[in-house]
Amino acid sequence: MKALDAVERLAAKRPPWWLYNGALLLLGLVTLAASWALSPGDDPRFTYLPTGARFGDTCGFLTATGLPCPQCGMTRAFVWAARGHLVDAFRYSPGGLGLFLWIQVGALIGLVRLVLRDPRALTPPWQLTVYWALGWIVLLYAVPWFLRAFAGVNPLP
Fold first, then answer.
1. 58 lies in a domain?
2. Model confidence pLDDT, tens digit, residues 138-149
3. Structure pTM?
């Protein structure tokens, strides 16, 4: 019973309003910095900027099944999106571009809320969030993966 009481006490605590918004901002900044830490090379692989070492290898899902994994191309999409090349990012992974943009919009919302000290600033209607999430999952993530895996439409090398 003591463990259950401890869980109930923990669940009753409310974190400060700025914690979530600060986490949104931090996630956006870390994502952007990590995307900038990789440099596109002449081939489709990336190099880590400080050392020049190659980043990434053959996907384990691809090796095991012969099919590209649903995340294939996301790293490239993040790297190209961070540099403003949205068409290239979309070509490599529409879902990756959508996720990158979603993270960056969340960071912007977190920043505005922190600056204004208003935890409700720029709160989108819940319907917009639901439609965006469903659209991202179905149209930008599942459909392109299905086309890559089963219809032979694969922009990845």
1. yes
2. 999 899 889 888
3. 0.82
